[in-house]
Write a structure and sequence with these properties.
One of its GO terms (molecular function) is saccharopine dehydrogenase activity. The chain is α/β, with parallel strands linked by helices. The chain contains 6 helices and 6 strands; from the N terminus they run αβαβαβββαβαα. The chain has a 6-stranded parallel beta sheet. The relative contact order is 0.11.
Length: 203
């Protein structure tokens, strides 16, 4: 997501001047961006941008609001140190970014939202959300539809998302089989150590 916004300067035009009064301590160009708390799943720890992205944005005069969350991979203090403002109310921001789909009750009207909506293939479970987006005059920028000149997606999960998924599936299978009275190698945590070492080496 960050690479796309950096390479496509016109994307910043979606961040309009906020009408709310800005505290005097805040030196802003009038542009406001909000990072919403992920609530589609209790296991979700990802964030659309990291603290060092926030630091770059604030340096360029963008006011960044971050909804508080103790599940996010990055601690709230890291965002504060980067220049973000932690607060529950993000209605001031015309552009709100996240990772996964947004619950209907949390969709604010007349905003621009950026997230994986999982509606491109007409996924039935998310059609009510899409209907709500249309009804509330919301502009949706779906990461899945951001492509380069060759039609290749520029915002996508890497191979390690698949590795993490496999680990979760195997461990979940082990738990299920254990509940049925079967002991399997999937319950032995050291089976995943080589995968974990690979991840650490790559990062």
């Amino acid at each position: 997501m960050w690479r796309f916004t950096r390479e496509n300067k016109h994307f910043s035009s979606y961040v309009y001047k906020a009408r709310s009064r800005v505290p005097q301590r805040w030196k802003s160009s009038g542009k406001v961006l909000a990072v919403r708390r992920e609530d589609a799943s209790v296991w979700e720890r990802r964030a659309p941008i990291a603290p060092h992205h926030v630091k770059q944005l604030t340096k360029e005069g963008v006011k960044v609001l971050v909804q508080p969350s103790n599940r996010r991979a990055y601690p709230m203090q890291a965002y504060i140190s980067a220049g973000a403002i932690i607060q529950e109310d993000i209605s001031e921001a015309p552009v709100i970014i996240g990772v996964k789909q947004v619950p209907i009750d949390s969709l604010l009207p007349n905003k621009t939202y950026c997230f994986f909506s999982h509606t491109i293939k007409a996924q039935e479970a998310n059609m009510p959300m899409l209907d709500c987006i249309l009804e509330r005059n919301i502009r949706l920028i779906d990461y899945e539809k951001l492509v380069d000149s060759k039609g290749q997606r520029v915002v996508a999960f890497g191979k390690f998302a698949g590795v993490a998924g496999i680990i979760n599936i195997l461990h979940g299978l082990g738990l299920r089989l254990l509940a049925l009275g079967h002991h399997t190698p999937f319950m032995v945590t050291k089976i995943y150590l080589s995968l974990l070492k690979t991840l650490k080496h790559e990062f």
